[in-house]
Design goal:
This protein has about 110 residues and is an alpha+beta fold. The protein has one domain. Helices cover about 55% and strands about 15% of the residues. The chain contains 3 helices and 3 strands. Strands 1-2-3 form a 3-stranded antiparallel beta sheet, with no helix packed on it. Helix 1 packs across helix 2, helix 1 packs across helix 3 and helix 2 runs antiparallel to helix 3. The longest helix has 26 residues.
């Protein structure tokens, strides 16, 4: 993976995303860039807000990420794919909450 240029990534079940990787491997970061007001942005903000008010899903997501952190991932897409099912389940619950509360992104 190039650590200095932009890469188009279309493997996400929710939307295309533009990602960038900067810096040396030991300081690697993964940045998602999305259009303001897009469904991609809405989903990320909903996920964030749901985890803030749902201790059970927050603990579930943390446990999944901690479990996956112990693996050596040759490709970060494999890591992302390993989280896909739990993220989809959590977003499903968040969407139901959103409909019941009329949540909007802030």
């Amino acid at each position: 993976m190039c650590r200095t240029c932009w890469k188009r990534d279309t493997c996400c079940a929710f939307a295309s995303r533009l990602t960038a990787c900067f810096g040396p491997p030991e300081l690697d970061v993964h940045v998602h860039v999305c259009a303001a007001g897009s469904e991609w942005e809405r989903t990320h903000l909903l996920f964030r807000d749901w985890l803030r008010i749902s201790p059970g899903d927050c603990k579930l997501y943390a446990a999944v990420k901690e479990g996956l952190a112990g693996h050596l991932w040759p490709d970060m897409n494999d890591y992302a794919a390993a989280k896909t099912d739990v993220i989809a389940d959590i977003i499903g619950r968040a969407e139901r909450w959103s409909a019941q509360t009329r949540w909007t992104p802030a």
